[in-house]
Amino acid sequence: MSTYLVERAILAPHNDTVAAINNYVLGLFPGEEVSYFSSDSLEIDAKNQHVEEGDYTVEFLNSLKIGNFPEHELKLKLGCPVILLRNLDQSTGLCNGTRMIVKRLGKWFIEVQILTGTHVGDTVFLPRLSLLVHYKSLNFTLVRRQYPIALSYAMTINKSQGQTLNHVGICYVSSYIGKGTQDS
Q: What are the residue boundaries of the DNA helicase Pif1-like 2B domain, all occurrences included (predicted)?
């Protein structure tokens, strides 16, 4: 099954389309679905000193979706394919874009088997990480503590660069791609 999954993906131009496809396909597979929720907060520093902790609710922070950044709720099942969203350790094959398959869903870690790159077949344990992103439109830095992975039945066209895929499905639902369009 892992060879089958690593050779295939559905590609779409936008993150919201990718998320919808991934959630739909996950629901088709048997097994218990496990949800991991992030812990979100604001980083207060000189760059955003005008922002105070109480300015934004936790629910608002949880609702923020940013390309190539883990979502607040990560839904997984045993055997589902995931993609790494950050470089963790290049010497062990844990690079941004590495595809893996979930082997165990623990309380404090997720065990995965690497499907792509130079360490195919290796089993690794992924911890939750505190990831930061400066949210330009609201002028603050979001700190999200979450596993740095996303489902990868589908991925953005940009994220597929560097992947070796023998079978690809394209899902194009938007009628316009223009200057300034954000795909990843």
A: 59-105
CA-to-CA distance for 149 and 96, rounded, in angstroms?
9
pLDDT at 184: 44
Task: List alpha helices for the chain, DSSP H.
Answer: 2-6, 15-28, 58-63
CA-nearest of 86, 62, 58 to 74 is 62
Q: What percent of the chain lies above the pLDDT cut of 90?
A: 47
In a domain, 178, yes or no: no
Point out which residues pair with 90 in neighbouring strands: none
Query: CA 173 to CA 123: how far, in whole Å?
Result: 36
pLDDT tens for each residue of 97-131: 899 999 999 999 999 999 988 899 999 999 999 99
How many separate domains does the chain show?
1
Could you give the 3-state DSSP secondary structure of residue 39? strand
Please give the residue range of the domain that contains residue 112.
2-170
Cβ neighbourhood burial of 109 (10 Å; 0-12, 13-18, 19+) = middle
